[in-house]
Amino acid sequence: MSFRSKKDATYLGIIGFIILIAFSGLIMPILIGASRNTVVPVLIFVVTIGFLLWFIFSMKYTLLDDHLLVESVFLRKRIPYKDITGIRRINSIGEMLTGYQLLTSKKSLEISYKTGMIGNIKISPDKEEEFLTNLQKNCSNLSIK
Questions:
Q1: Is 57 exposed, middle or buried (0-12, 13-18, 19+ CB in 10 A)?
Q2: What is the 3 state secondary structure string of 31-94?
Q3: CA atoms within 13 A on the CB side of 19
Q4: What's the pLDDT tens digit per position in 10-46?
Q5: Which residue of 11, 35, 89, 145 is most buried, as measured by CB atoms within 10 A?
């Protein structure tokens, strides 16, 4: 079962701010006539925004037979159910911007697991309660805080 990443106003505001900065630095000089070179800045802007949007809208979390697969573009993390030790609910911008994360919402989940260098990952499934119910079916000793 696959779940897309939910997108909230906080995250979309951050992305909008990044796009505004890229626009003002790359496109505004062309529009006001301060730059004669148009191809390179426009190309950089389009590729950057395109990659950013591709990364955001391809993010998904899949519950498979023996592991949770968290993926977006070229990032993939397999977390075996037997290694998941707990889940903590998050609802702050500070938590949203730190750590290993594949999320697009301030209200998200931090999954702790035994393997890996960091030992936790932050995600934001669109149907959070359904995701947790299905995850608990595979992880009988899962604690949610």
A1: middle
A2: HCCCCCCCHHHHHHHHHHHHHHHHHHHCCEEEECCCEEEEEECCEEEEEEHHHEEEEEEEECHH
A3: 13
A4: 888 989 999 999 999 988 888 888 877 888 999 999 9
A5: 11
